[in-house]
Fold this protein.
Amino acid sequence: MRSLIFISLLLTGLAINAAPIATFKFDNDQQEELFHKLSQDLRCLVCQNNSIGDSNADLAKDLRNEMYGMIIQGKNEQQIVDFMVQRYGDFVLYNPPMKPLTWVLWFGPAIIFVIALFYALRIIKAQRSDVAPQGMKASESERLKRLQAEAERTSHRQDQQE
Amino acid sequence: MPLIIFGLIAVVLVTAMMKIKSGELRVREVPSPLIGKMSPEFSLPSLYGQGEVSTADLKCGATLLNVWASWCFACRQEHEAITWLANNGVRIVGLNYKDQPQDAKQWLQRLGNPYSLIASDIDGRVGIDWGVYGAPETFVIDEQGIIRDKHIGPVTQKYIEEKLQPLIEDIRKTSSCEA
Protein backbone atom coordinates (compact mmCIF):
# COMPACT_ATOMS: atom_id res chain seq x y z
CA MET A 1 0.00 0.00 0.00
CA ARG A 2 2.73 2.34 1.03
CA SER A 3 4.68 1.72 -2.15
CA LEU A 4 1.54 2.34 -4.17
CA ILE A 5 1.15 5.77 -2.57
CA PHE A 6 4.81 6.41 -3.18
CA ILE A 7 4.57 5.52 -6.86
CA SER A 8 1.46 7.62 -7.40
CA LEU A 9 3.18 10.56 -5.72
CA LEU A 10 6.16 10.11 -8.03
CA LEU A 11 3.87 10.07 -11.04
CA THR A 12 2.12 13.27 -9.94
CA GLY A 13 5.51 14.93 -9.78
CA LEU A 14 6.27 13.81 -13.30
CA ALA A 15 2.97 15.12 -14.58
CA ILE A 16 3.62 18.55 -13.06
CA ASN A 17 7.10 18.73 -14.54
CA ALA A 18 5.88 17.80 -17.97
CA ALA A 19 3.01 20.30 -17.93
CA PRO A 20 4.64 23.33 -19.63
CA ILE A 21 5.56 21.36 -22.75
CA ALA A 22 2.79 18.79 -22.94
CA THR A 23 0.34 21.09 -24.72
CA PHE A 24 2.43 21.48 -27.88
CA LYS A 25 2.01 19.16 -30.87
CA PHE A 26 4.86 18.73 -33.32
CA ASP A 27 5.07 17.44 -36.88
CA ASN A 28 8.06 15.23 -36.12
CA ASP A 29 10.50 14.13 -33.44
CA GLN A 30 13.28 16.50 -34.52
CA GLN A 31 11.01 19.47 -33.93
CA GLU A 32 10.08 18.24 -30.48
CA GLU A 33 13.73 17.58 -29.65
CA LEU A 34 14.71 21.06 -30.75
CA PHE A 35 11.93 22.52 -28.64
CA HIS A 36 13.14 20.66 -25.55
CA LYS A 37 16.75 21.63 -26.19
CA LEU A 38 15.94 25.33 -26.63
CA SER A 39 13.65 25.26 -23.59
CA GLN A 40 16.66 24.27 -21.52
CA ASP A 41 19.27 26.47 -23.25
CA LEU A 42 17.34 29.73 -22.96
CA ARG A 43 16.97 31.62 -19.74
CA CYS A 44 13.75 33.09 -18.48
CA LEU A 45 14.29 36.84 -18.13
CA VAL A 46 11.87 37.35 -15.28
CA CYS A 47 13.01 34.58 -12.93
CA GLN A 48 16.63 34.55 -13.87
CA ASN A 49 17.59 31.17 -12.50
CA ASN A 50 14.96 29.29 -14.47
CA SER A 51 15.12 28.20 -18.06
CA ILE A 52 12.29 29.12 -20.42
CA GLY A 53 11.13 25.50 -20.18
CA ASP A 54 11.05 25.41 -16.37
CA SER A 55 9.53 28.76 -15.67
CA ASN A 56 5.88 29.42 -15.04
CA ALA A 57 6.27 33.15 -15.61
CA ASP A 58 3.92 34.69 -18.12
CA LEU A 59 6.76 35.86 -20.34
CA ALA A 60 8.32 32.38 -20.40
CA LYS A 61 4.97 31.05 -21.59
CA ASP A 62 4.87 33.67 -24.36
CA LEU A 63 8.42 32.85 -25.39
CA ARG A 64 7.62 29.13 -25.46
CA ASN A 65 4.69 29.92 -27.77
CA GLU A 66 6.96 32.07 -29.91
CA MET A 67 9.55 29.28 -30.08
CA TYR A 68 6.89 26.73 -30.95
CA GLY A 69 5.60 28.91 -33.77
CA MET A 70 9.07 29.31 -35.23
CA ILE A 71 9.81 25.58 -35.01
CA ILE A 72 6.57 24.72 -36.79
CA GLN A 73 7.51 27.26 -39.48
CA GLY A 74 10.69 25.24 -39.98
CA LYS A 75 13.20 27.68 -38.45
CA ASN A 76 16.42 26.07 -37.28
CA GLU A 77 18.13 26.33 -33.92
CA GLN A 78 20.49 29.15 -34.92
CA GLN A 79 17.64 31.27 -36.29
CA ILE A 80 15.63 30.91 -33.10
CA VAL A 81 18.62 31.64 -30.86
CA ASP A 82 19.41 34.72 -32.97
CA PHE A 83 15.81 35.89 -32.63
CA MET A 84 16.09 35.74 -28.84
CA VAL A 85 19.56 37.31 -28.63
CA GLN A 86 18.51 40.20 -30.91
CA ARG A 87 15.77 41.08 -28.45
CA TYR A 88 17.11 40.12 -25.07
CA GLY A 89 20.89 40.03 -25.56
CA ASP A 90 23.41 37.32 -24.66
CA PHE A 91 21.76 37.17 -21.27
CA VAL A 92 19.11 34.74 -22.55
CA LEU A 93 21.79 32.16 -23.27
CA TYR A 94 22.84 29.87 -20.47
CA ASN A 95 26.05 29.33 -22.44
CA PRO A 96 27.36 32.82 -23.16
CA PRO A 97 29.27 33.17 -26.46
CA MET A 98 33.04 33.50 -26.34
CA LYS A 99 33.99 37.13 -27.00
CA PRO A 100 36.25 39.73 -25.34
CA LEU A 101 33.41 40.89 -23.09
CA THR A 102 32.89 37.39 -21.71
CA TRP A 103 36.53 36.31 -21.45
CA VAL A 104 36.53 36.91 -17.70
CA LEU A 105 33.53 34.64 -17.46
CA TRP A 106 35.17 31.89 -19.47
CA PHE A 107 38.76 32.06 -18.25
CA GLY A 108 38.39 33.73 -14.85
CA PRO A 109 37.77 30.53 -12.89
CA ALA A 110 40.71 28.75 -14.55
CA ILE A 111 43.04 31.67 -13.80
CA ILE A 112 41.89 31.82 -10.18
CA PHE A 113 42.43 28.07 -9.93
CA VAL A 114 45.99 28.34 -11.25
CA ILE A 115 46.80 31.15 -8.80
CA ALA A 116 45.30 29.16 -5.93
CA LEU A 117 47.25 26.07 -6.96
CA PHE A 118 50.47 28.07 -7.09
CA TYR A 119 49.97 29.36 -3.55
CA ALA A 120 48.85 25.98 -2.24
CA LEU A 121 52.00 24.35 -3.60
CA ARG A 122 54.16 27.04 -2.05
CA ILE A 123 52.54 26.61 1.34
CA ILE A 124 52.85 22.83 1.19
CA LYS A 125 56.51 23.10 0.21
CA ALA A 126 57.21 25.49 3.06
CA GLN A 127 55.57 23.15 5.56
CA ARG A 128 57.50 20.17 4.27
CA SER A 129 60.83 21.85 4.68
CA ASP A 130 59.83 22.65 8.28
CA VAL A 131 59.26 18.98 9.04
CA ALA A 132 62.42 17.60 7.46
CA PRO A 133 65.19 20.11 7.48
CA GLN A 134 67.71 19.30 4.81
CA GLY A 135 71.34 18.60 5.46
CA MET A 136 70.73 16.35 8.46
CA LYS A 137 73.24 13.69 9.29
CA ALA A 138 72.09 10.08 9.20
CA SER A 139 72.63 9.67 12.95
CA GLU A 140 70.69 12.87 13.66
CA SER A 141 67.71 11.85 11.57
CA GLU A 142 67.79 8.45 13.26
CA ARG A 143 67.62 10.19 16.64
CA LEU A 144 64.82 12.47 15.48
CA LYS A 145 62.75 9.47 14.42
CA ARG A 146 63.34 7.79 17.77
CA LEU A 147 62.31 10.91 19.68
CA GLN A 148 59.20 11.35 17.56
CA ALA A 149 58.17 7.75 18.13
CA GLU A 150 58.67 8.15 21.86
CA ALA A 151 56.71 11.37 21.95
CA GLU A 152 53.86 9.66 20.14
CA ARG A 153 53.81 6.78 22.61
CA THR A 154 53.71 9.17 25.56
CA SER A 155 50.87 11.17 24.15
CA HIS A 156 49.05 7.94 23.34
CA ARG A 157 49.38 6.79 26.91
CA GLN A 158 48.10 10.11 28.14
CA ASP A 159 45.08 9.82 25.89
CA GLN A 160 44.26 6.43 27.36
CA GLN A 161 44.56 7.69 30.88
CA GLU A 162 42.14 10.51 30.26
CA MET B 1 49.97 38.85 1.38
CA PRO B 2 46.84 36.79 2.12
CA LEU B 3 45.62 39.67 4.26
CA ILE B 4 45.98 42.08 1.34
CA ILE B 5 44.03 39.75 -0.96
CA PHE B 6 41.33 39.30 1.66
CA GLY B 7 41.17 43.06 2.12
CA LEU B 8 40.78 43.67 -1.62
CA ILE B 9 38.00 41.11 -1.95
CA ALA B 10 36.24 42.58 1.09
CA VAL B 11 36.42 46.10 -0.37
CA VAL B 12 35.01 44.94 -3.74
CA LEU B 13 32.14 43.07 -2.09
CA VAL B 14 31.24 45.85 0.31
CA THR B 15 31.22 48.55 -2.41
CA ALA B 16 29.08 46.30 -4.63
CA MET B 17 26.66 45.74 -1.76
CA MET B 18 26.44 49.44 -1.02
CA LYS B 19 25.84 50.22 -4.68
CA ILE B 20 23.06 47.66 -4.87
CA LYS B 21 21.46 49.11 -1.77
CA SER B 22 21.59 52.68 -3.08
CA GLY B 23 20.15 51.51 -6.42
CA GLU B 24 23.24 52.52 -8.39
CA LEU B 25 24.03 48.95 -9.35
CA ARG B 26 21.01 47.01 -10.56
CA VAL B 27 21.82 43.33 -10.65
CA ARG B 28 18.50 42.09 -11.95
CA GLU B 29 18.61 44.38 -14.93
CA VAL B 30 19.25 42.85 -18.31
CA PRO B 31 21.10 45.29 -20.59
CA SER B 32 19.16 45.78 -23.81
CA PRO B 33 20.91 44.96 -27.09
CA LEU B 34 18.48 47.36 -28.78
CA ILE B 35 20.14 50.57 -27.57
CA GLY B 36 21.61 52.37 -30.57
CA LYS B 37 19.41 50.40 -32.97
CA MET B 38 16.26 51.27 -34.87
CA SER B 39 12.93 50.84 -33.11
CA PRO B 40 11.44 47.44 -33.96
CA GLU B 41 8.53 47.92 -36.36
CA PHE B 42 5.03 47.58 -35.02
CA SER B 43 1.49 48.60 -35.75
CA LEU B 44 -1.10 48.14 -33.04
CA PRO B 45 -4.67 49.26 -32.40
CA SER B 46 -4.91 52.45 -30.40
CA LEU B 47 -6.37 52.01 -26.93
CA TYR B 48 -8.97 54.70 -27.60
CA GLY B 49 -9.93 53.25 -30.96
CA GLN B 50 -8.56 56.01 -33.20
CA GLY B 51 -6.96 53.72 -35.75
CA GLU B 52 -3.43 52.40 -35.37
CA VAL B 53 -0.35 53.42 -33.47
CA SER B 54 2.89 52.51 -35.25
CA THR B 55 6.64 53.04 -35.31
CA ALA B 56 6.12 56.20 -37.37
CA ASP B 57 4.41 57.79 -34.36
CA LEU B 58 7.65 57.56 -32.39
CA LYS B 59 9.72 59.67 -34.76
CA CYS B 60 9.15 63.15 -33.48
CA GLY B 61 11.73 64.96 -31.41
CA ALA B 62 12.51 63.04 -28.27
CA THR B 63 9.78 60.53 -27.60
CA LEU B 64 9.39 58.13 -24.71
CA LEU B 65 7.83 54.75 -25.21
CA ASN B 66 6.53 53.79 -21.80
CA VAL B 67 5.56 50.15 -21.28
CA TRP B 68 2.83 49.94 -18.66
CA ALA B 69 -0.19 47.94 -17.55
CA SER B 70 -3.01 48.33 -15.08
CA TRP B 71 -1.85 45.17 -13.25
CA CYS B 72 1.60 46.62 -12.72
CA PHE B 73 2.18 48.04 -9.27
CA ALA B 74 5.41 49.86 -10.11
CA CYS B 75 3.60 51.64 -12.97
CA ARG B 76 1.41 53.33 -10.40
CA GLN B 77 4.57 54.35 -8.54
CA GLU B 78 6.05 56.02 -11.59
CA HIS B 79 2.77 57.54 -12.78
CA GLU B 80 3.48 60.82 -11.02
CA ALA B 81 6.91 61.14 -12.64
CA ILE B 82 5.50 60.25 -16.07
CA THR B 83 2.75 62.84 -15.65
CA TRP B 84 5.32 65.43 -14.60
CA LEU B 85 7.31 64.73 -17.77
CA ALA B 86 4.20 65.00 -19.96
CA ASN B 87 3.30 68.32 -18.33
CA ASN B 88 6.80 69.55 -19.08
CA GLY B 89 6.51 68.99 -22.79
CA VAL B 90 7.90 65.49 -23.19
CA ARG B 91 6.02 63.42 -25.72
CA ILE B 92 5.12 60.03 -24.25
CA VAL B 93 3.65 57.13 -26.18
CA GLY B 94 2.25 54.33 -24.04
CA LEU B 95 2.56 50.65 -24.83
CA ASN B 96 -0.23 49.03 -22.86
CA TYR B 97 1.39 45.65 -22.31
CA LYS B 98 -0.61 42.43 -21.82
CA ASP B 99 -3.57 44.29 -20.45
CA GLN B 100 -7.30 44.36 -21.01
CA PRO B 101 -8.38 47.62 -22.72
CA GLN B 102 -11.24 48.22 -20.27
CA ASP B 103 -8.89 47.75 -17.27
CA ALA B 104 -6.37 50.11 -18.83
CA LYS B 105 -9.01 52.76 -19.49
CA GLN B 106 -10.32 52.52 -15.93
CA TRP B 107 -6.78 52.90 -14.60
CA LEU B 108 -6.22 56.03 -16.69
CA GLN B 109 -9.57 57.49 -15.71
CA ARG B 110 -8.65 57.15 -12.06
CA LEU B 111 -5.05 58.36 -12.24
CA GLY B 112 -5.02 60.62 -15.30
CA ASN B 113 -3.70 60.04 -18.80
CA PRO B 114 -0.21 61.43 -19.51
CA TYR B 115 0.11 59.72 -22.91
CA SER B 116 -0.15 61.36 -26.34
CA LEU B 117 -0.99 58.00 -27.85
CA ILE B 118 -1.45 54.50 -26.48
CA ALA B 119 -0.82 51.28 -28.38
CA SER B 120 -2.68 48.23 -27.13
CA ASP B 121 -0.38 45.19 -27.05
CA ILE B 122 -2.86 42.71 -25.63
CA ASP B 123 -0.92 39.51 -26.31
CA GLY B 124 2.51 41.04 -25.64
CA ARG B 125 3.78 40.11 -29.11
CA VAL B 126 5.20 43.59 -29.78
CA GLY B 127 6.67 43.56 -26.27
CA ILE B 128 8.78 40.54 -27.25
CA ASP B 129 10.12 42.40 -30.31
CA TRP B 130 11.14 45.23 -28.01
CA GLY B 131 12.80 42.87 -25.56
CA VAL B 132 10.32 43.76 -22.83
CA TYR B 133 10.45 41.42 -19.86
CA GLY B 134 8.34 43.29 -17.37
CA ALA B 135 6.59 46.55 -16.73
CA PRO B 136 7.35 49.35 -16.41
CA GLU B 137 10.08 49.84 -18.97
CA THR B 138 10.80 53.11 -20.73
CA PHE B 139 12.58 53.63 -24.05
CA VAL B 140 13.96 56.97 -25.22
CA ILE B 141 13.66 57.36 -28.99
CA ASP B 142 15.14 60.06 -31.17
CA GLU B 143 14.00 61.77 -34.36
CA GLN B 144 15.33 58.98 -36.59
CA GLY B 145 13.57 56.33 -34.54
CA ILE B 146 16.79 55.10 -32.92
CA ILE B 147 16.51 53.81 -29.37
CA ARG B 148 18.87 55.94 -27.27
CA ASP B 149 18.21 54.53 -23.83
CA LYS B 150 16.13 52.01 -21.95
CA HIS B 151 15.13 52.36 -18.34
CA ILE B 152 13.92 49.27 -16.50
CA GLY B 153 11.60 49.76 -13.54
CA PRO B 154 9.81 52.90 -12.43
CA VAL B 155 11.10 56.23 -13.75
CA THR B 156 12.54 58.13 -10.81
CA GLN B 157 13.47 61.74 -10.14
CA LYS B 158 17.10 60.64 -10.11
CA TYR B 159 16.82 59.04 -13.57
CA ILE B 160 15.05 62.12 -14.96
CA GLU B 161 17.68 64.51 -13.65
CA GLU B 162 20.82 62.52 -14.32
CA LYS B 163 20.06 60.77 -17.58
CA LEU B 164 16.75 61.67 -19.20
CA GLN B 165 16.90 65.46 -19.27
CA PRO B 166 20.44 65.69 -20.73
CA LEU B 167 19.52 63.03 -23.30
CA ILE B 168 16.30 64.80 -24.33
CA GLU B 169 18.16 68.09 -24.69
CA ASP B 170 20.78 66.37 -26.82
CA ILE B 171 18.13 64.84 -29.09
CA ARG B 172 16.22 68.13 -29.43
CA LYS B 173 19.34 69.97 -30.63
CA THR B 174 19.06 68.21 -33.98
CA SER B 175 15.29 67.85 -34.07
CA SER B 176 12.95 69.71 -36.37
CA CYS B 177 9.69 68.22 -35.17
CA GLU B 178 7.51 70.18 -32.78
CA ALA B 179 5.42 67.85 -30.70
About this structure: The two ends of chain A are 53 Å apart (CA to CA).
